[in-house]
Write a structure and sequence with these properties.
The structure holds 3 protein chains of 3 kinds.
Chain A: H1 2-16, H2 30-40, H3 46-58, H4 73-108, H5 113-127, H6 130-144, H7 157-186, H8 189-196, H9 201-239, H10 245-254, H11 258-286
Chain B: H1 2-8, E1 27-38, E2 41-53, E3 58-62, H2 69-76, E4 84-93, E5 96-97, H3 104-111, E6 116-119, H4 123-126, H5 133-144, H6 149-162, H7 168-171, H8 181-192, E7 199-203, H9 211-228, E8 231-236, H10 239-245, E9 248-253, E10 256-262, H11 263-268, H12 273-280, H13 320-324, E11 330-333, E12 336-338
Parallel strand pairs in B: 3-8, 3-9, 6-7, 7-8
Antiparallel strand pairs in B: 1-2, 1-4, 4-5, 9-10, 10-12, 11-12
Helix pairs in contact in B: 5-6, 5-8, 6-8, 8-9
Chain C: H1 3-20, H2 30-43, H3 45-62, H4 64-67, H5 105-141, H6 143-158, H7 161-172, H8 176-187, H9 189-204, H10 206-213, H11 218-255, H12 266-273, H13 281-308, H14 311-320, H15 333-348
The chains are: A mainly alpha, B alpha/beta, C mainly alpha.
């Protein structure tokens, strides 16, 4: 999959445009252009270029950025990725930590007043575009109330708004999943049997049903995290000028920095794979019936 | 604790047939009504039924699916869930109401799983697949008897041994998926016995099992009954099971009780036409029977139940009165009560 | 927004499949279903809101030239950055205010509905057709066809979808057509999975097997059953996908890789308004709220569809929203009276031990 991703990106960028267009000045002559092309190796057949690229990867050479000449792409990623990871960790922790209790409360009496209120709120949350959530947070908390900075990176207070913006839609989606999973479990026979044993309703919900709903919740949480890592932070990073991975990906795309872009896609794919492995291990922990393949 | 409670309550004078001795019955269900509120209408699943179970007695509750057997059992345990609701009647445990009065909820929580235990039909889904057997067994004694983890473990080992599982100590660390259906039902029975209950409600405990396993489980129940003087409410649609195990039997039809009597008596000589029909449609090994006779027609619509006897539309001996007036459950002899305008003579 | 988000939708759709299920397709005639749906709508106020809002939005998009008070592109440098009419300094000439070039916000919103709805419908249609065709093919043919198609689906779903979408869009160049193409290419997989699942379960049903046994051509039987069985999950999936696409279009336009700068799109308007976030809050808020309301309406409609298709859930909901009778007073005069009599007799006789439990009695 990781390989497929890099092949596709490589081909797309080479076939659709001439990357040299973006690195030479507009007033460059044909000769300057050709020289630069030769220097970067873009005059060779695509297959050769690709073989060269793969060979580089095998040596651990991810290539040099076109947009910031002289900087290794992996170096840029090394600087931006931790910032994105911090943002994702903060946002997702917030979303998951809140979604569990809220979804459980809603599931206790499906169709009841509280449930309908929470469902409507969750739907509202997941219906808002992420950039809009971010801008609203800025207008309210940064502009009007002046409690928190508008954006940027460095101070812990600058993490709050982007993390909340990243968390809110995920919170809406996860709450719905927790709720429906809990409703399913609470209808199940073993819950009835546990109640017949005399276990308190609270115990049954918090212990039995929650653990069983955990498998579904875990799946969805894993998706939320991979989704965020695979570029979905880009909108939030753009709104809050958070100098992470997503923002650089956007820059790389707009500047046709295909070496940087390839590395970004490669790293994003690896991250997705890593998260999936972690989720698989957690599955095993939640559900002993699952055997790792 | 139980004896103290008994002293505080007045004896119930509702003495059906053979009990003249003082003291409330172990379990007394009176005029219980359970309704399901669906948009098709209110389904009157259980209509004003009364059941009394004495200490040490095994009561069979038989009827076809949809007759209200399981709904009754769940109502007794306080496990009725939406869209269902108990809308009338009372359940008294040793004379104390589990439904009414300010302390009913507390009493129900104390009694459920402790003095009254329940075993369900489907052992495959009644255990939580994600917790070990030990964890699920310890839960019960820790909650009701305040056992420490160690005490609870010892008790669980003892119980698994009692229900005939080998290597009980190792079993405790296993998950339900490592057990067969019969073994799971044994585990569930062991779990139900954790606090030495006085009444075991078994809701079709053998229906989901293979025939040979069924026999083993019934044997186990019979053994436990004899050993511990356990009272049992055995819910089943299998008359053979009732005949083998029960002292008394209540036949349910359309949310009503059709007939109550000694198990042997009812089998030998059913008084209600429905009991008779049910008996004739069941294969028997001990008697040579020319052929099985099925009951014509369909069970009643419980949203708009018939005004008269619910069985009247299917009953061969039904008259006008049967269709117009609901028969009360009345004694027709010393040991038999029947809800029928034209009961077969029974001794 | 793009592929990652498919997962969410997918789990919902998977759920959907389980609920609406195979075999329910033929449970009732279409007309009864329709009546049921509409009947349910009266009970579900949220669903009703969603339907009404969407209908109004569609009408607004169709009759935009008649409804919009101004030309959405017309600049009026005298009336720049006017706040909405009800705010101090506002002018009811421009009910929702004007942007940095003096263009009427309300008119732009009305015209913006066209892009959102057009992109939503077109992407759902294209992705749906591609996905369902490939999915049915994979499920029906099985073997190598199945493996190739599903492997493609798996790989593409695991891609960092948004990045690929942005990349594609920026390569082709911004335009409405680009957005439709990019999102359709990115969104067909979920339909394929769903359609394949339906076909596989139809394949295993008794009637297809029966048809095979009696020598009927199973192909005919299958195809007559696939479509009805596909209808229910497909409709809910399409509705949810529509919501996702509206969000995705807004995000792409916001990032500047969606529609052209001269097009009118809600997402683009938010991006433009971002520059005035300190001085003109309405520029970001108005289109943002409209996107949110549109997506919310679609989601409400979807959840209404879901409840309708799940009988058990429906009954629960029905009972939960209804006032149910309380436990009736014991109406058993003979026993109750006798009970009381005995109780008083006992207390009169001065029997000790009438503890607190004695108060537990009939209600």
């Amino acid at each position: 999959m990781v390989v497929a991703a890099s092949i596709v990106v490589f081909l797309l960028t080479r076939l659709f445009t001439d990357p040299v267009d973006f690195v030479v000045p507009l007033e460059a002559t044909e000769e300057e252009r050709a020289a630069r092309e030769a220097e970067l190796g873009f005059d060779r057949p695509i297959i050769v270029q690709f073989g060269d690229y793969i060979a580089g990867l095998a040596r651990g050479d991810f290539g040099e950025s076109l947009w910031q000449p002289g900087r290794s792409t992996i170096d840029i990623i090394g600087q931006t990725l931790p910032k994105t990871l911090l943002l994702v960790a903060a946002g997702m922790t917030l979303a998951i930590a809140l979604a569990l209790p809220i979804g459980m409360i809603a599931a206790i009496r499906p169709g009841g007043l509280l449930d309908r209120l929470l469902v409507t709120l969750s739907l509202a949350g997941l219906s808002m575009p992420q950039f809009f959530v971010g801008l609203m947070l800025i207008i309210i908390f940064a502009v009007r109330l002046d409690w928190l900075p508008v954006g940027g990176y460095g101070d812990p207070s600058q993490l709050v708004l982007p993390a909340v913006a990243l968390a809110l839609p995920a919170l809406g989606r996860l709450t719905m999943v927790v709720r429906s999973a809990m409703i399913d479990e609470l209808n199940s026979q073993y819950v009835k049997a546990a109640r017949a044993k005399g276990m308190a309703r609270r115990t049954v919900i918090a212990k039995h049903a929650l653990r069983n709903a955990g498998v579904q919740v875990l799946t969805m949480s894993g998706w939320e995290v991979t989704r965020a890592l695979a570029g979905f932070t880009v909108v939030v990073e753009k709104v809050f000028a958070w100098p992470g991975f997503g923002l650089f990906a956007l820059e790389a795309i707009q500047r046709r920095d295909l070496f940087l872009l390839s590395t970004i896609v490669l790293v994003a794919s690896i991250l997705v794979v890593v998260v999936n492995v972690v989720v698989d291990i957690l599955y095993k922990w939640v559900d002993p019936r699952i055997t790792l393949s | 604790m139980a004896t103290a409670d008994r002293a505080t309550t007045a004896p119930t004078p509702d003495a059906p047939t053979e009990r003249a001795d003082a003291g409330p019955a172990l379990l007394e269900v009176r005029d219980l009504r359970v309704e399901f509120f669906t948009r098709r209408g209110v389904v009157k699943a259980v209509r004003d039924i009364s059941i009394t179970i004495e200490r040490g007695q095994v009561m069979g509750l038989v009827g076809e699916s949809g007759s209200g057997k399981s709904v009754t059992a769940q109502a007794i345990m306080g496990l009725t869930e939406l869209p269902g609701r108990v809308t009338g009647g009372d359940v008294r445990w040793k004379g104390i109401s589990l439904l009414r009065g300010p302390k009913a909820d507390e009493e129900m929580r104390r009694v459920r799983g402790n003095e009254i235990a329940m075993v369900f039909q489907d052992p495959m889904t009644s255990l939580n697949p994600l917790f070990t057997i030990g964890n699920q067994m310890r839960e019960v004694t820790r909650r009701h008897l305040g056992y420490s983890k160690r005490q609870a473990t010892e008790r669980a080992v003892e119980l698994l041994d009692l229900v005939g599982l080998s290597n009980p100590r190792e079993r405790l660390d296993q998950h339900p998926n490592e057990f067969s259906g019969g073994m799971r039902q044994r585990v569930l029975i062991a779990m139900a016995l954790s606090c030495e209950p006085e009444l075991l409600i078994a809701d079709e405990p053998t229906t989901a099992l293979d025939v040979t396993i069924q026999a083993q489980i019934l044997e186990l129940l019979a053994k436990l009954k004899d050993e511990f003087g356990l009272s049992v409410l055995l819910i089943t649609h299998d008359l053979g099971v009732v005949a083998g195990m029960c002292d008394r039997v209540s036949v349910m039809y359309g949310g009503r009780i059709a007939e109550v009597g000694g198990a042997d008596d009812v089998f030998a000589d059913p008084a209600h036409p429905y009991s008779r029909g049910l008996l004739r449609s069941t294969p028997r090994l001990d008697e040579r029977q020319a052929r099985l006779v099925s009951i014509e027609g369909a069970p009643p619509d419980l949203v708009n139940p018939p005004v008269g006897c619910p069985y009247a539309p299917r009953c061969l001996s039904a008259g006008d009165r049967c269709r117009e007036e609901l028969p009360e459950l009345l004694p027709i002899s010393e040991r038999r009560t029947v809800a029928c305008w034209h009961p077969f003579a029974a001794g | 927004m793009t592929t990652r988000e498919l997962h969410d939708i997918e789990s919902v759709a998977g759920h959907e499949l389980a609920l609406t299920g195979i075999g329910r397709g033929e449970r009732a005639s279409r007309t009864t279903n329709m009546r049921l749906l509409l009947g349910e709508l009266r009970h579900d106020k949220a669903g009703l809101f969603g339907v009404v809002f969407l209908v109004l939005l569609v009408l607004a998009a169709i009759f935009a030239p008649l409804l919009a008070p101004h030309d959405p592109g017309q600049q009026n440098l005298v009336a720049r950055l006017l706040p909405p009419g009800w705010v101090e300094g506002g002018d009811w000439e421009y009910p929702l205010g004007t942007d940095g070039l003096g263009r009427d916000v309300l008119s732009r919103l009305i015209y913006g509905a066209r892009v959102s709805l057009l992109v939503g419908v077109a992407v759902v249609a294209f992705a749906g057709i591609i996905g369902v065709t490939l999915g049915v093919l994979a499920g029906y043919r099985g073997g190598r066809t199945d493996r190739i198609i599903m492997r493609t689906v798996d790989t593409q779903i695991a891609f960092p979808g948004l990045l690929i979408a942005i990349l594609l869009a920026s390569l082709i160049g911004p335009s409405v057509r680009t957005v439709i193409l990019v999102l359709a290419v990115n969104g067909w997989m979920i339909y394929a999975r769903m359609a394949r699942g339906v076909v596989l379960s139809v394949k295993e049903t008794a009637y297809v097997e029966a048809a095979e046994i009696i020598g009927c051509r199973p192909r005919r039987v299958m195809f007559t059953h696939i479509l009805p069985n596909l209808a229910a999950p497909l409709s809910t999936l399409a509705v949810l996908e529509f919501a996702r696409i509206v969000l995705a279009e807004a995000a792409l336009s916001f990032l500047g890789v969606g529609v052209k700068r001269t097009d009118i799109s809600w997402g683009l308007d938010v991006a433009i308004g971002q520059d005035f976030i300190f001085s003109a809050w309405w520029l970001v808020t108005m289109p943002g709220v409209l996107i949110s309301l549109t997506v919310l309406s679609v989601n409400l409609v979807a959840s209404w569809l879901r409840i309708v298709s799940d009988p058990a859930e429906r009954e629960k909901r029905y009972a939960a929203t209804r006032k149910l009778p309380k436990l009736a007073k014991m109406a058993a005069p003979p026993t109750a009276r006798a009970n009381l009599a005995t109780a008083s007799a006992v207390s009169a006789a001065g029997v000790t031990g009438l503890g607190p439990g004695a108060s537990d009695g009939d209600g």
